[in-house]
Amino acid sequence: MRLSVDTNATSLDCMFLHILGSRPIRSAVFNPGETFDSFACGFGPDKTGPYNPPQARKKPKRPIHERKTMELETSPGSTPLRTPVHTLGVVSYLNARPLNEFLQKRCDMRLKPAVPADLAQMLAEKHCDVALLPVVDYWRHRDRLQLVSDACIASDGETLTVRVFSKRPADKIQRLHIDGDSHTSIILAQIIWRELYDCELELSPWDSSDHGSLDDVEALLLIGDKVIRQRPLGFGFEVDLGAAWKYLTGLPCVFAAWYGPRDEDFSELAKALTEARDQGQAEARRIASEAAGQHGWPEETAIRYLCETLKYRLDDSMRAGMDRFFKFAVDHGLLR
User: In what order do the strands lie in the sheet with 310-313?
Assistant: First the structure.
């Protein structure tokens, strides 16, 4: 039997161990550095005396991502039980379910959902170890971030969930109200209108919770589940930004990928993220069927979305699409 304890924890309370062929060890409290034997646990020499636990010293706990793993192995060759050692910043949209589904079942992963636009700040403030970051936010912080895995969210054409709804033809739009949940889509819309329609859009923020403000909205950019669940009425024209990007460049469009601090070693985590992606893709139909109602999607549409529309592997064509996107953004002065 092997017991190793988080050296940052102040005590290990009420630990019950049962070893085959021996008697159970009673409840114990002990401090780092103390010997784990009958006397340190407060038992008499015969291991049957009264239990008088020593007082544990209290000190503030460090954030989970800074603490060491607590590991308990109860028999030779068994798999150690571990506390969560990686906190992942994720998005809660349906499009991320194939990436997240099997991560949330692991005891060594903790998922923190947020809208895409908030993940960069979470990562910078160390509220998570890695994040499913919009590629625009990676570019803005590329001096201190690294790509962790080849798992991503991308499309090779239509996206279904990154769309501009308009009351006028696309080439007549002058002002675009924007859903601030995604930084990548806002840059992508500006690139498409400048390249395809030779038009610099005037951008205005729009609050998706303000349902009564559409009368004066000429065009509206929406992303995520709300495109399906809260499809705006009264807009006769639509532009799917993934399809427009494919028409413009002939390349896929990458919206998000796993990124983390440049000075960290994520080799083991990368394997876990890749494995979770592969499992999620293999079971995408089941995931879509089970999650459709929760996200407000028709089941058949959700299945087509996860199984056909979206791509989750960052291959050479995806990287070429990212490079072209960044070049356009820099050339147009949208990224610096």
Answer: 109-113, 86-90, 130-134, 253-261, 145-155, 310-313
Count CB neighbours of 43 within 10 A. Answer: 18
Q: What is the identity of the amino acid at 65?
A: H
C-alpha to C-alpha distance for 186 and 169, rounded to whole angstroms = 19
Q: b vs e for 191-230, b when ≥16 Cβ sit within 10 Å of the residue's Cβ? A: bbbbbebebebeeeebebeeeeebeebbbbbbbbbbbbee
SS3 state of residue 96: helix
Class for domain 86-152+255-297, per CATH?
alpha beta
Which residues of the chain fall below pLDDT 50?
1-54, 56-76, 78-79, 81-82, 84
Rounded Cα distance, 158 and 135, in Å: 18
Two structure tokens written together for 247? 């028409």
- Which segments of the chain belong to CATH 3.40.190.10? 86-152+255-297
Tokens 């919770």, residue?
209
pLDDT tens digit string along 175-230? Answer: 999 987 878 999 999 999 999 999 999 999 887 665 556 888 999 999 999 999 98
How far apart (Å, rounded) are the C-alpha atoms in residues 160 and 310?
9
Q: Which of 167, 159, 217, 213 is nearest to 189 (CA)?
A: 159
Residue partners of 35: CB distance under 8 A and separation at least 6:
none
CA distance 62 to 232: 46
Write phi, then psi, for 231 (nearest 5 degrees): -55, 120
Largest pairwise CA distance in the chain? 89
**Residue 7 corresponds to which tokens in the numbers above?**
């050296």
With H, G, I as helix, E, B as strand and everything else as coil, classify residue 130.
strand
